[in-house]
Design brief:
The protein is an alpha/beta fold. It has one domain: Rossmann fold, CATH 3.40.50. Helices cover 37% and strands 22% of the residues. The chain contains 12 helices and 12 strands. Strands 4-3-2-7-10-11-1-12 form an 8-stranded mixed beta sheet. Helix 10 packs across helix 11. The chain is globular, with a radius of gyration of 20 Å.
């Protein structure tokens, strides 16, 4: 029996607690249970509608603090080696947040991993996954930011586990995305999805687009039911237009939740994807292995990227450097507090 609950995000701590209680989550979040939280940190710093907000993470961690669970928060390095997970941790203030609530931060790209066989619809894939997720997690909770996505139309609770693949060159797996994302989800079996829907990205994504204030938090005990409810009730889109979600239906996941409790009063908004020419070219390349290898994993492809960024700039690289600089200043101030007044 799957259930989705949609609340306003004004009192986000209370909304998370009420939803966890309503879904019976505290029954399996007891003492000694190893709980892994997977936020979406697809940018070096927090951007509304792009990355899971520190505000939501604080609300989830504070609700888990009294349960006695051992909580871990983790993410892998940015795709194509754009930034390390550690940079994103710093850019979202997660070290201080996790320290406050006794949680442990995990860079999935630096933790131990091993190759496992993932069988789905008659195909078997060999893929490296973090051992902490395979062997040392009792309850997996995904914390997505539902948004438009220029490559796959929509990103939410199902797609958030793409970041559990520790290889920063997971971009090479994109021609097999639909099957692989479900194979990963089948292996990790997320128990809950807690969606940060205070702001959601319209028109484009996953990093560029228009953040829209929606003032919602969505919690569900089935990732596909979560995505379908968000698309239909919050974004006003037909979930059937998101190709990879349909595969979950074939695998037996709940297309519609048995119960949807919508208590939100957030503003209505019609979402719509607007792909640029660059998006369309990239999406076409993603579907073809030879094109992915040429554009993202060859010497000519890397040279072409450098030339492109020379003309257009690379905002992710600039943001990464800003985070690193601020982190170095903060570290220096902790080591030499007597110098802080001179800055």
């Amino acid at each position: 029996m799957s259930k989705v609950r949609i609340d306003n995000a004004d009192d986000i701590h209370g909304a998370v607690g009420d939803a966890l209680d309503s879904l019976g989550a505290f029954e399996y979040l007891g003492k000694g249970r190893r709980v892994f939280l997977k936020p979406n940190l697809t940018y070096p710093t927090h951007r509304p509608g792009v990355t899971t907000s520190p505000r939501l993470l604080r609300a989830v961690l504070s609700n888990l603090a009294d349960s006695g669970s051992r909580v871990f928060v983790g993410e892998s390095d940015g795709g194509y080696g754009a930034w390390s997970a550690d940079t994103a941790f710093d850019g979202h203030g997660l070290r201080a947040i996790c320290s406050t609530f006794g949680a442990t931060l995990v860079n999935l790209s630096q933790s131990a991993s091993r190759k496992v066989g993932l069988a789905i619809l008659g195909e078997t894939y060999r893929l490296a996954l973090p051992e902490i997720l395979l062997d040392e997690t009792d309850v997996f909770i995904t914390l997505p930011v539902p948004k438009m996505h220029s490559m796959v139309t929509y990103s939410g609770a199902v797609k958030n586990q793409w970041g559990c693949i520790p290889d920063p060159m997971r971009i090479k797996l994109h021609p097999h995305f639909a099957r692989l994302i479900w194979a990963v989800n089948e292996r990790l079996a997320p128990r809950l999805a807690i969606g940060d829907c205070e702001y959601m990205l319209d028109r484009n994504g996953p990093m560029s687009g228009d953040p829209v204030y929606m003032n919602r938090i969505v919690v569900a005990d089935d990732i596909l039911a979560f995505d379908v409810a968000v698309l239909e009730r919050t974004m006003r889109l037909n979930p059937a237009t998101v190709a990879y979600l349909g595969l979950g239906r074939q695998l037996g996941h709940s297309w519609h939740a048995d119960t949807v409790e919508d208590r939100s009063t957030g503003p209505p908004h019609q979402f719509e994807l607007h792909r640029t020419l660059r998006n369309r070219l990239a999406a076409a390349a993603f579907q073809r292995q030879w094109a992915v290898n040429l554009v993202w994993d060859s010497r000519p492809g890397r040279l072409a990227h450098r030339v492109l960024y020379a003309f257009t700039g690379n905002p992710v690289a600039r943001e990464r450097e800003r985070v690193l600089t601020m982190t170095q200043i903060a570290d220096s101030e902790r080591e030499h507090p007597e110098d802080c007044g001179q800055r």
